[in-house]
Amino acid sequence: MTPKKCSYLICFISSISILPAESMANPWESRDITGLYQSQSELMHRRSRNIINPILLRLEKIWLTRRSATKKNVTERVIQTVHEPSSTGKSGSSDSIAQYEDQFLSSMTRHLYSFLENSLWSNNWVIWSSGSVDIGKTGATFQTEQMDHQTDGLTIGIEGSFGDDKLLGVVVNAGEDKTGVGLSGSRMATNDLGLAAYASLSMVNNYHMDIIYGLNKFGSNTHRNLGDDILKGKRDSLLIYQSINIGKDLRYSNLSFKPYSKIFIGYANLKPYSETGSPKALVFSEQHLHLLKYHLGAVVDHQLVTSFGRFRPFARVEHGIDLSQSSGFYSSYATGEGELYHTKLHHLRASHWRFSLGVDFNFYDGWITTSYDRWEESEMHLDNQPMRESDTLNLELLLLF
């Protein structure tokens, strides 16, 4: 072999040796991986809603059933009516007796109404609990598979009044979420535990303001199928939030109408985590979510007082805008091969509609409420924007002590 041919052969062998044995694929090109990762930010979005709603529903009952400015007047009118029978008509006549009976029954009904009002806002302390089941889905996009979820929540609170127009309370809440992604078996299970404090203030002209501060700690376990391998990961997250709600109570006889507006501000820190179980396991970086949501809505209810207690069927319509943002983040292969693959979520911003139907039953020593919420959220004019749908069933129990 001539020296010239040897040099060509050496160059050819060298060129082969510098080629990678296997090109590493960008993990964000997998709709399963992207969907599983985005389901974690979806959970922060969903739980931030489910955490504060039981508190706002509890406070809503107070302001829809009581006006502190009329508390004394109602009681005084009841006492006067019971002890001052009508002087019209002849004594002993059937018309006079019937009229007196009507006044007596009416006074007793108003007395029950006053008792129920005062029991909701008095020097007594109140312990209450609320449970919810949220079932829904986030639609597929060209980047992610469909995500289906079931989120269960439990809230236990204790509160007391300070004066005629202030209320302070503390709640402990816990949640459990199960999310499935696509049809390959990718899924996530999460448990969270949190603490929140809230205050409610009565203002002039039947306005009131509710303020909530809280935080929740999350622990998630991810499961991903890759051929014959099963990849598992564990991730911790923290959610800090504040919510301010301002509403006005308008009452027409037994019909109440309450327009309101609220703002939710939150920060979520999703810690870095890594998968195990395969040479193609991934490592994910830290992620930051800045949550900002505005809501406008109205509640209409009708109150019916009976000898057994008070019934309040109600309906709600709410519209909201979500301006939340996510930081950028990246992934890499646990073996260290390949490079850092960067991406960012663009699906957080959306608008939503909420429709609710429910009924309250207020008896002497407590309160039972059940309600149904329908949530629909999307921003279809934006590229790669999923449709979110969920149905929530709420059950609340309140006891005085």
Secondary structure topology:
Layout: H1 3-17, H2 31-65, H3 71-83, H4 94-120, E1 125-138, E2 147-161, E3 166-181, E4 186-202, E5 207-226, E6 229-248, E7 250-252, E8 255-270, E9 273-276, E10 282-284, E11 287-302, E12 304-306, E13 309-322, E14 325-326, E15 329-333, E16 341-343, E17 350-363, E18 366-378, E19 388-400
Antiparallel strand pairs: 1-2, 1-19, 2-3, 3-4, 4-5, 5-6, 6-8, 6-9, 7-8, 8-11, 9-10, 10-15, 11-13, 11-14, 12-13, 13-17, 15-16, 17-18, 18-19
The biggest beta sheet reads:
12 strands, antiparallel, barrel
Order of helices and strands: HHHHEEEEEEEEEEEEEEEEEEE
Number of helices, where a helix is a run of at least 4 consecutive DSSP H or I residues: 4
Cα distance, first to last residue?
102 Å
Radius of gyration: 30 Å
Mean pLDDT metric = 80
Q: What proportion strand?
A: over 45%
The class by helix and strand makeup works out as alpha+beta
Count all strands and give the number.
19
Low-confidence runs: 8-22, 67-91, 118-123
Helix content: 10-25%
Description:
The protein is of the alpha+beta class and 401 residues long. The protein contains 4 helices and 19 strands. A 12-stranded antiparallel beta barrel has the order 1-2-3-4-5-6-8-11-13-17-18-19. Strand 5 (207-226) and strand 6 (229-248) form a beta hairpin. It is elongated and about 95 Å long. Mean pLDDT is 80; it is low at 8-22, 67-91 and 118-123.
